[in-house]
Amino acid sequence: MATMIGSGLSNQTGAAVGALAFPVLGPLGVVAVRQYVAAVVLLAVARPRLRDFTRRQWWPVLLLAAVFGTMNLSLYTAVDRIGLGLAVTLEFLGPLTIALAASRRRLDAGCALLAGAGVVVLMRPRPSADYTGMALGLVAACCWASYILLNRVVGRRIPGAQGAAAASAVSALAFLPLGVLVALRHPPATAAVLCAVAAGLLSSAVPYLADLLTLRHVPTQTFGLFMSVNPVLAALVGLVVLGQKMGGPEWTGIGAVVVANALSIATARR
What we know:
The protein has helices at about 1-20, 20-45, 55-80, 85-90, 95-100, 105-120, 130-155, 160-185, 190-215, 220-225, 230-240, 250-265. It is mainly α.
């Protein structure tokens, strides 16, 4: 339990710390640094044998790299526009959709309706609504769903974490010229770079290693159930670290999405 809580808090705190560097680096610069850090950590842990990869193994790795980079960029840009809690909740619709789409149970249909009602509340028309930011949150959700499906393909074709490490390295290479361009146009302060590096460590390295340890001792169903609280953790971290306050309707919408996912997983057949 301690490891799962630490993983969730680390992930959301990393995103919040990265947001502190947005005024200097922007979401693009922060994501670029995060991709570099994730690549270094995963390459050190997995040590993929890239020369041995076949064409059949490379194409899902390249797709995974594209999805990985797009997911993080759309999420961080959404965080910049609509706040951490709302952005993470919308992104969480990706894995929730994957879980519900494969089911034919009436309860899961009800969970889908509950989650949909929560999204309607979150995206309701109002003067302060940032629909571009919300759309980016939904793009992140689509990317997360694609990330899950592609990871299954990569996991079947490449042993261990080598595929994920290779995808992370390719994504980091793609962001390298963008990171250089951001640095040249807006020379970053040391504090901003440290925040971006911390975001990479807290949101990539620590959760990856913590989840790896957790899944050795905790059933997958229990792990998935705990993952449901991530939108709540994101909202709380956004409030404490970034001062992002939300009203009753926003908390209600987040709660609906969390409850829908928790119900679906808690009642799933083993």
